[in-house]
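User: I'm curious what two different proteins look like when written out as structure tokens. Can you demonstrate?

Assistant: Sure. I'll show them one after the other, since each token string lines up with its own sequence. Here's the first protein:
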Amino acid sequence: METTSQTPPATAEDTARRRSRRTTVAVTSLSAAVMTLDATVLNVALPGIGDEFAAPLGHLQWVVNGYTLAFAALLLTAGSLSDRLGRRGAFAAGMAVFTLASLACALAPGSGWLVAARIVQGAGAAFVFGTGPALIAGAHTGLPESARRTAMGIFAAGGAAAAALGPLVGGVLVEFAGWRSLFLVNLPVGALAVACVLLWTLPQPRSTGGRVDAAGAVLAVALLFALNYGLLTGSGQGWERPDAVAALVACPVLLAVFLLVERSRGDGAMLDLSLFRIPTFVGAIGLSFAARVTSFGMFPFLILWLTGVVGLGALQVGLVLLLMPAGIFLLAPLGGLIARSVPVRVIMAAGMALIGAGLVWAALALDQQQGWAAIAPGLLLVGVGAGLITPHMMDLAVSVVPPERAGMASGTANTFFPLGTAVGVAVFGAVVSAVVGARVAEPGRATAGDFTGLAGAAAETARAAYADGLALVLLVAAATAFACALSSLVLIRARDVHGNGAGGPR
């Protein structure tokens, strides 16, 4: 007698869970793209904002840095609070705040209003971006590791592509619709995201640890704000500024107090310090930091070389920089499939090694006469390497903690993204300034890639000095990437994965 096996029909609960997973991945990925875009897109609009409001340079800098500082300072707190108060609600609330703040930005009657609205925007973005990876991890509980990794890859690809496309998208919108359109486009996206999350995603388990750690939250915000403020202000406006010095001096004190408070809170702490005893978690943190140092940290100086030395326009620069996200966009969604046959630690090491190799290529190929074409292969290598590591960075952080602490883990790892950018910009800015200052009698604005006040041999010397400074920056970034590649082989371990000794990172 012949028998046939049939797959049981899907229940209503199965259908709801599949819809919830798809909605979660789609909404969080789209939101990550919007949050990242708003961190980069506004730079091209600053001249128009300055003209309309007659705003001083300090206000224009705060239009950019206000968002970045609020975002960086609140990421850790947002991730931890979402575990206790509910990730779905935290995500929806963050997106609602971000959307309303975007409307306030679009309607801003002056630069002061715009700065305030940008700070609120950054706060909302922190709750969206800090909660997104945890939502994805929770939605894929019980499924194969490859499914979660693929979803994380889509989330990461959205943010990475938006980061690289920011200047290009911003230029097009400002050119044809004005700078206020940069904020108006957020309104339909935000409304759609809030509706989809509340209507079509399922609730996720909350952390059972007692009261909210208010003291830890306040100290974390103060510490991260002081650190990022000191680095951004010092690198942008001078390390001798009293506010920059005070912020950086306060950091070790705030860190010591924060660690003491968190240690005393035990299981009720906002940040579980025992996570840092897990090598894979430490590896994920290091990768998050190094990824931004080797990308956003050196981006400003590469852009200044393309514009000031090579002579490209803003649109041309945007097109050249598309070489990097091409690899990320193509490879990141395939992260789960690649990890089925290749150990994750090997993928991460190979990705960081490719980034390092691409940066070395670009450093050795810098040539004013050949222009951007000489460094194009290097930028492609960097993009391919980033595409390999991007889908796994967030997944590594959340895979080694219990599901109810995924928000804390993703918030902690996400915190090191803006920190890596700030440290990279600060260190690399000092490198370029030192190289140019040593070879140009009156460097002036030449350290920022502006050679308009120079002529003849002086201008050529300044351009060559800037190119040499950028080459040194690329080599330092490459060394960082190679060091991270080696550490990935040591730190990332299969046995660290929560509740699964063999199915996670190998």
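Here's a second, unrelated protein for contrast:
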Amino acid sequence: MNVDDVKRIAIIGAGDMGHGIAACFLQSGFTVTLRDIEQKFIDRGVAGIRSSFERFISKGKMTQEEYNAAFSGLITEVDLNKAAKDADFIIEAIPEDLKLKQNLFSELDKYAPGHAILATNTSNISITEIASATQRPDKVIGYHFFNPAVLMKLVEVIKGQKTSDESIKIGYDLAKKIKKLPVIVKKDSPGFIYNRVNESTSVLLSKILEEGHPTPEEFDAAFKSLMAMAPFELIDYVGIDILVHGMMYFAQAVSKEYMPSEELLTYVKSGNLGKKTGKGFYDWSHGRPVIDTSKATKEYDINHLIALQVNEATKLLAENVCDDPKEIDIAMANGGGSPFGPFALAQSIGYPVLVNKLEELYNKFKLEIFKPTAIMKEGNIKV
């Protein structure tokens, strides 16, 4: 089997990620079955696809004829068997719960044709553990899109312990066919590339809350001119509960040092989760919060954040999750809003400067995950 044999796509889960991924395949002329457990969720997903395509039309990125052609390839289905039975490539986009995913993959394994590849859009969970619920672990891959999928280019194509090279190649080539930028993750590891590199920053923010200074606004004020959304503001936008869920997973899978602080957990316990509840670190009830840049902290600067990212990226190299620093830079630059990846930034700033920043953080918080790695200290990675 090769990528040209893939004609029919099934997307399981019609939420934000599911319908966004479906839209990508529809635009590229594939027949797509969008499935969810209730018709109301499917209807909501279809409305999301229409909304995306209508925006493309308004911006001159899609014609009405292209819109009609794309929608002619859409099939909706509640019955899982019917959704999977003719599919060549199936992408799961359901909530981040291992048992839930394993149950689904066990069913898909029974219903899908023998040649079909089963892909999971998980952002953190082990591909190997998901694949263990099937009789075809060689055909199970990680296929991590970024939100909003219709706009974001990066797709992490992740190899489980038993995933075949053929399955990875098909996933990689298919991502290119729908005009995405795929990066192969060669080893199943928590957070893969993008989320793993960013997770140590989450720990820093959690520890800052624990210390009580600077305040979220004082911290964000120092970075507001450098990024579209400052760190605490971005967490509010995504959801504090999402951050906490990810940190707890890393605490279990990587190190207890990722465990969220009690101060961070207080926000979740109180129900103040950020934008979606109207309040988190900021008040969102009147729209996007205004951050007073005159309050900028002097305790931290951008090089602290870059140092954490580069340090975590060197661990991916050491653990053989990815063996090419350029691929890590591509993933980081295309998964978020930065024009440069961590290694390009390190090369520009200088490794000694970043090692010094890591040592400052380690001396302040005494966390092993903040310690500069041997690769950081050598500082000879070129991209």
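A detail about the second structure: The two ends are 34 Å apart (CA to CA).
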